[in-house]
Fold:
Amino acid sequence: MNDIICARITAAGTSAIAVIRISGKGSIPLVAKYFRPSQKLLKAAANTVIFGTFYDAAEKALDEVLLSVFQAPKSYTGEDTIELSCHGNPALADRILSTLLSQARLANPGEFTLRAYLNGKMDLSQAEAVNDLILASSSKAETAALMQIKGYLGKHLAGIMQDIQDARLRCELAIDFCDQGLPQIDLDDLRQRIFNILSTARALKEEGQNGIKLREGIKICLAGAPNSGKSSLFNAFLKQNRAIVTSVPGTTRDYLEESFSLSGYPIVLYDTAGLRESADEIEQEGIARSYALIKNADLILYLYEGDFTDLPQDWQAYQDKLILVAAKADLYPDRLIPPGHVAASVLAQAGLSALSDAILNHLNLPTVILEHPLITNVRHLAALSRCITALEAAQVALQQELGFEFIAFELIFAHSALEDILGIVPSTELINKIFAEFCIGK
Ligand SMILES: Nc1nc2c(ncn2[C@@H]2O[C@H](COP(=O)(O)OP(=O)(O)O)[C@@H](O)[C@H]2O)c(=O)[nH]1
Ligand SMILES: [Mg+2]
Structure:
């Protein structure tokens, strides 16, 4: 962790400017070897930008560059850091990088952020959110990631951890009191404390189920009989002719998957093969895949043409995630639409915004993400669940008077589950897994 790392932090390819980041103790004198006037850099104050020329090892001028100079600990990584902006010719940026690499090492994926975490600039949840923000596929996902970077989740968890700690200290006090024959601690107070912590944790978990969808995308599956208009609706949502639309039933055999943003929420939309009995082997496989998608979807739009008759067999299981769509509304101006169904016509461009509203209502997504702690990540949700299980066990131990040692033990466990989210005790395996998903330069 003490060596100097560097990498290009802007995307590959030609651009106006390319930026190379160099971080680690000694990175400022290292760059100064190749920068003129070098004294200007060596004497530069922290958080300043200086202009000069970058030379290669053979003293050949390569480019005019701007250096943003950061001094430890006031930098992204917490170390001395320079961000070198050069002209965005990829070969030129490579030449500058190679020159620096004679004295430094190419950064691993996510290594700048890893250093930021290890140097205490951010907790693990914030570090993960950096990657989430870079990869976010909708405005709401961006906001959620930004809030996490700002530390809303971390602060909220720290509050819960403090409350767990307070409850545990009371248990330990109770153990001492018992030993010394002193009066008992206030049991009602302890019960209330554990109850309150549990309520807060459960609320966070409940919202987290939706938060995860914000990060991973909400899976919506178009289903219905062949020719009911699924592919047309798919194209209408995507605003492009992605799926083949024909009047021949059974056109869509394999499924299609595309992402788009609906009112800022990330949606993954699936167009599937129409559901019917079929002797065609390829179509049968397509229909089997449709059922697999339907099962895993967060929401199903079931399209039907003409009057609504019945859902396919065994669809009761999907009642909670189903929106029934009376498709091709232009062809059936007089049909009766059952309550709760949404009439829509792709051809007449009608009912599509009502359908979007129905989707958003049905998903019951968090609308206010701003300045609000929200779990968006499966790893965090799993840790929170472990915390809740331990708190529940503490509650039972208290109720059944199993002894304060047991309650304290569960509270320690609950606390350490939340520590895992923030990465308070770094684990090499976990860290390797998390930062491997980052790109080089972040
Ligand atoms: N009149 C009318 N025809 C439609 C509408 N949506 C789709 N169709 C037609 O219905 C046929 C089947 O559409 P398609 O999207 O391929 O259905 P899928 O088999 O469910 O994917 C095509 O000929 C479409 O042009 C609509 O809203 N109104
Ligand atoms: Mg189709």
About this structure: Residues 306 and 333 are 10 Å apart (CA to CA).
